[in-house]
Amino acid sequence: STGCPEEEPPGGFCSPSPRGEPHCKPETHMDVQGFRWVRWRVWLCHIGSVLSLGLLLVLFRWRPRLGVLARCNSCPLAFANILLLRDSFGQQYVVELLCILNGFQVPLLHYYLFEGLRYIWMARKGAFCRVRLTSNAYVKHTLISTHFTPPPLAASSSVYGTNLIDVPVKSFMRLLIEEVLNPFYVFQVFSIALWLTDSYYYYAACIVIISLISICVSLYEIRKQSNTIRSMAQQITNVTVRRSSGEEDSLSSVELVPGDCVLIPQEGLLLPCDAALLAGECMVNESMLTGESVPVMKTPLPAAGGRYSPETQRRHTLFCGTQCIQAKGGRPGRGGAIAVVTSTGFFTAKGDLVSSILYPQPINFRFYQDAIKFLLFLGGVALCGTVYSIVILSRTNTTWWELVIRALDIVTIVVPPALPAAITTGTIYAQSRLKREGVFCISPPRINISGKVSLFCFDKTGTLTEEGLDVWGVMEGSGAGFSELVPDPRLLPQGPMLSAMACCHSVALLGGQPLGDPLELKMIESTGWELEEPAGDDKTLDSEFGGHRVLAVMRPPACPLQSESVAVALVQRFPFSSSLQRMSVVTVNPEGQSSLAFIKGAPEMVASLCLRESVPAQFSNTLRTFASDGFRVLALGYKTLYGQTDLSTIERGEVERDMQFLGLLVMKNLVKPESAEVITTLRLAHLRTVMVTGDNVLTAVNVARTCGMLGSNERVIFVHATPQTAHSLPSLRFHLGEGGTEDTATQSSIDMYTQGLYQGVINYHLAINGKSFSALCDHFPEYLPKVLMRGTVYARMAPEQKTQLVTELQKLNYRVGMCGDGANDCGALRAADVGVSLSEAEASVASPFTSKSDNISCVPLLIREGRCSLVTSFSLFKYMALYSLIQFSSVLILYTEKTNLGDLQFLFFDMVLVTLLAIVMGKGGPSTELHPQRPPASLLALPVLASLTLHTLLLILGQVSALLITTSQDWFVPLNSTMSGAANLPNLEDTSVFDLSGYQYIIMAVVVTKGYPYKRPLYYNVVFVCVLLVLFALMSWLVLAPVPFLRKLLKLYYIPDMNFKILLVALAALNFVFCFLLEMLIDRGMLNCLRLLRGRRQSKKLYKRLDVLLSDSPSWPPLDQPLVPPQCTVIGLS
Q1: Could you say which of 260, 274, 370, 459 is catalytic?
Q2: DSSP result, 944-985
Q3: Which of 161, 212, 465, 1101 shows its CA 20 to 30 Å from the CA of 789?
């Protein structure tokens, strides 16, 4: 089964289903297979587990599907008691089917729990479906009108579960078992058992101690993190619920179920669930979920039937985990507000975010995938070494038991168990440095991914430009035209324009201080009017304004210019919505006279809702002029509401139509001083920058040019797409911008520009708005990739369109970064490969990265740290691989000579040399500049594999040379051939190989540590340089003049010949020179000649292939040529 079809009621609002079934949201991406236990198979597996000493259970844990297939039979879902789930990423999970029994022990309901969510069996649909009251997105009209909780569904708490985001905190014993069963520790246990059998007691004991410390630290961190998330997620409070009888009950928030009607007190509440606001207004701080520090005004759902969605109607939805600061107007006589519960537990917005932290999606990054493949390759090398050791040792008098032990020992040497831990040290250092710079990360693997970002999207307002705006002026307009720009709104004559600016807002008072959107605060401040709100249950203001329920009152200043102005009361408010691009209010004058509706929003949207004769003929040209100069422009309108209209139940659609156009409010939005510098830095580093904003397209183009996204010699082409209508086909057109549109540009200038464009002389950028983007995606998908390749400005984009843009760019194989500062960017921030939220919060669950900086200077810092971390991970990976290959070579050479390294010799190499170097290698910081070329991400690329192979050959050559030089000396004494392995230590063969390989561990740390252009030079890593010098001195001391105590401890042969020992040091130096030169030549492109031999290949990245295609396309984009979809062309011709 892959889910169930979603059904919707024919109309009305959202409610419990009249058939008594909860609405269920399908999970079409989840594949579900049913199985039943087979008793004899279960018993057989128990016996197999005992006989295999538990290894069979370990295998079943690593491969859940094998465990199910071994113990169960496949069956239809209706008869299953075990389910095998497979998600869209191919990961498999085994879950047990649960059931709810009635009083007669008869099953009422079958369900399973997965990642905190509940899926119930719907026999009618033949599938398991996710329980969710609002999935069909309707709320019943009776809930809106009467505000009571409907009779609960049968066993509703059993159906929906408790209202608790319960983060499991496992016991230490369970965590210990799960940690020990990790493949890494299973391999460690196998290795330790092998070493103990081979009498490597010191080494085994040391690894046991280190492993235990590692396990304890890991368990502590996991437990601490689980407790932190649990305390953040789990929220229990007492709430008041209104019943159908009108009674009010106080109960724990844990008992809430969808459909309950919750009373929100006047002083506010930390919301324990998602709820739709039915009556009253709430001022809510949503920073915990969105990172947006400005509180948001929530207003009641419209009274009429219609589709409800928590995403599209955010301004009517209270989200779990957010703080309601104050509530008012919903309960006459008692204050507060009323809301209906729509989602509980993990089904809430907060639950969804907590779930994304607990169960993150697997990261599709080539570096991590190649690391697993390379470990398998090392396993193959270990197999070859095992075969070689068996052949060599079988020729001696080695017993079969020793032969097996020696052969298996090769595996523990070649596959370094510390490799996964070692390659994360660079990320840990980078995370620490970012935190010091005020950038917090909740997903460390994303740091490496940020090093591969090829395109960065930026929100405009508050990100590239200042958050606050200053009023530049007001221009009144009517059908006769526009009047002169009035710089100070206080100078406006008394009339609807001044009232509109004073009243059309969602600002509220908290502790006597106005609170709300910075733009609206500036607008009210510019008028001089003062905001007043009813205090609690005080009816004085209601009486003053004709008995209407007053939300707020705006009073004019006591000054001669506005002496004729009268106070205005807000009695109905329809808040701003990004998707609607507007807000509106309904007002009355004292005594309830003269009811007016005001609207404020995007000029194009407001003009479309106004009577055509009231909009000035110069509207488009005037708007274009202001927007081209970078001003933020809002339009205002109004209309008179006549006496027969019921203002308390009036609908938004009725208010926002047939309006009278009032004029334009022009605001100056300055670009932040850091924006241009950062954008220039990114462009010089060949990183594409894209602006995604909800503002006007011409304003966005101006800001893009000001901050450097568009160069002075680069032109803008506007993309205009229209959807299909009853009278016209969808169309797509490209026209020249920058005041050079078809209205103002002469045909000769277009022809000249077109000639330059098609000859590749002029660079161009595309600009598109949200409506055109939607039409482009729906009707012209074949042109979408080309537009995305050249698109730089995306304006009037709704939040869901921002998310769609990010995902479409990712389909072109871009690694996409997104930087934003508000709730409108949350979806895009989470969809991007690297999301950066500019927020005062230390860590926001809205994105992987949160910067305390209020500008985009954190973006190049993050990319530099990402590149540094990625290169460090590469270096550590190569070092750990070479360390294994050095030791692998040493052991095979000594096996050939019938000896081996000693217990403490292994310990000295692994603990003193390699571990110490691996820890401090990654401390080097990032380069101060962004290089135009991104670092590689593939471990299986030719340079990496060639480097490892050639280095290994040079290292083997060095060790063999040391051995041959030793055996050629006159004083050479052969080892005792009657003994084998470490039993015949000390001997000259072992000592010479030990001396040279000790230097090789040190010199390879220098060779593989990369600096320019992604990291600072090696000498800036002072700790690493000091450790190198100390270890080099220690190794030289052991080679040239070891004290007897250390020599005996390490079982080294005493060599009196100082010239020979100096020769060994010289051989190590020569080894270093050759390896260093080889690495440098590979970095400089020595292997490019091999690529020339194989011929030029197309890039695997789609955007690079498209870039080549567009560069070679002399006729794209076709200017001022209307295009229609191919299928429409065929229809038209036919």
Answers
A1: 459
A2: HHHHHHHHHHHHHHHHHHHHHHHHTSTT-----TTS-GGGG-
A3: 465
